[in-house]
């Protein structure tokens, strides 16, 4: 229980109708979770407006309601609090309800189109290698120290998020790393959090089904840095065309990383293999268990952020060699006959280009690249032909297949992808709707020395079809298929 006045001190209130001296039993934004004494926050979601449920919760025992518009009928015994933006208010109320856990952690957020999961996960691992308990909030899985907590979305709602951060504090964690998605920034899911640092990876086309324009997508990412406090650090990739733009309005201390030009933290690829890379960080050579330029960027970001988090630079260099790839991110499998398969989460045009470039850099002309790739349903349709074209230009053979079709027909998604092919690329491309059969076919086409890339799903262990999630794991399928060749 907390006094309403204590909670309201965390937000900007436009108008209050009713008593302030009431006790609150819980803070909720889901009308189904209301109980006696709850504070209900009516949030305007992308699909549902919480204001619709005010009449329902008003007779369900709530003590107070936070809203942007006061209802026509005001029930007696309920305190109504009017705010300009209930989404922002929810973030600050959630933080206050859980006693501001982010202020008790060194919380570092990672944003960008690609590389968020790898960078955030490796920062979590780096803190643990330095002897600290740490937490992680990521697409793959959340961790409260060593306890795995399944992740439903990249960045949870503010109440779930603060509950997890509070669990980290209670578990003795000193550090936490989290992915910050553009959706979360735009919907104010991170409002009220105190970040010790922020990292920007890159920006390429993605989520235009939601943001509509690339500039709106950029502004959502940038808002994360705009809101960092002056005590935080902001680390950006200056090799990306908008890397410096991200930090234009930040109050945080600014730092840069790069593979191509002078920066505060410089990385360099010295030698690449499918199972690792010899790199240098600020002139110090380190053997790492990662492959590809995109991973070199991720690792340089991890190196820089780790130093800015206060870890000893010499210890960080040693620990860089101990870090291991994240599940489903350039995860390699090899058959007894010499065929290599790579499972990667690449699900944007740029990510497909990055992973194929990394493979070609190592394989050269000595082997062929056979790519299995699809595109998700109910998402940005504009990237589908681009992904097919980029895959065809950088592979010897391509098999277009289902990803998560969701509510769309798989064949129609493949038709959209095929629109990106021309007379030059079309002959090397097959379309096979069944993803398992597509993987089998790709391996059957491969010879010793070839590499089969299975892109798009990475760590995911399901396919979502017509609202139902069916078990399907690229890693399981390819490992089984490789046993027979």
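-> sequence recovered:
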């Amino acid at each position: 229980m907390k006094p309403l006045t204590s909670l309201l001190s965390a937000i900007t209130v436009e108008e209050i109708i009713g008593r302030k001296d009431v006790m609150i039993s819980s803070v909720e934004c889901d009308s189904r979770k209301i109980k006696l004494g709850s504070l209900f926050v009516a949030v305007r979601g992308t699909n549902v407006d919480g204001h619709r449920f005010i009449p329902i919760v008003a007779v369900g025992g709530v003590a107070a309601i936070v809203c942007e518009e006061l209802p026509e009928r005001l029930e007696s015994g309920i305190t109504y609090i009017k705010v300009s933006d209930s989404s922002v208010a929810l973030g600050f109320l959630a933080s206050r309800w859980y006693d501001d856990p982010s202020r008790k952690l060194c919380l570092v957020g990672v944003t960008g189109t690609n590389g968020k999961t790898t960078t955030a996960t490796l920062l979590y691992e780096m803190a643990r290698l330095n002897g600290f308990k740490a937490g992680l909030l990521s697409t793959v899985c959340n961790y409260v120290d060593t306890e795995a907590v399944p992740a439903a979305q990249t960045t949870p709602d503010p109440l779930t998020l603060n509950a997890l951060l509070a669990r980290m504090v209670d578990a003795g964690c000193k550090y936490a790393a989290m992915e910050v998605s553009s959706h979360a920034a735009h919907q104010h899911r991170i409002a009220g959090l105190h970040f010790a640092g922020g990292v920007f990876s890159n920006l390429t086309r993605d989520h235009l089904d939601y943001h509509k324009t690339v500039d709106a997508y950029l502004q959502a990412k940038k808002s994360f840095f705009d809101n960092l406090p002056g005590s935080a650090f902001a680390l950006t990739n200056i090799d990306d065309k908008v890397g410096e733009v991200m930090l234009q309005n930040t109050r945080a201390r600014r730092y840069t990383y790069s593979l191509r030009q002078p920066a505060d933290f410089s990385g360099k690829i010295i030698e690449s293999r499918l199972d690792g890379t010899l790199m240098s960080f600020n002139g110090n050579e380190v053997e790492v268990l990662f492959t590809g330029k995109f991973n070199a960027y991720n690792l340089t970001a991890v190196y820089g952020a780790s130093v800015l988090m206060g870890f000893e630079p010499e210890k960080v260099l040693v620990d860089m060699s101990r870090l291991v790839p994240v599940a489903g991110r350039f995860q390699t499998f090899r058959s007894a006959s010499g065929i290599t398969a790579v499972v990667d989460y690449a699900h944007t045009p740029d990510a497909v280009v990055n992973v194929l470039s990394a493979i070609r850099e190592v394989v050269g002309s000595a082997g062929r690249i056979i790519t299995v790739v699809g595109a998700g349903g109910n998402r940005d349709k504009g990237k589908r032909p681009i992904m097919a074209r980029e895959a065809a230009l950088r592979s010897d053979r391509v098999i277009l297949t289902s990803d998560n079709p969701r509510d769309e027909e798989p064949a129609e998604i493949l038709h959209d992808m095929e629109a990106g092919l021309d007379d030059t690329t079309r002959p090397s491309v097959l379309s096979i709707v069944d993803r398992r059969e597509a993987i089998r076919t790709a391996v059957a086409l491969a010879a010793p020395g070839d590499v089969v890339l299975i892109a798009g799903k990475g760590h995911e262990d399901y396919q979502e079809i017509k609202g139902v999630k069916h078990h399907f794991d690229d890693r399981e399928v390819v490992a089984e298929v490789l046993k027979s060749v």
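The CA atoms of residues 374 and 402 lie 5 Å apart.
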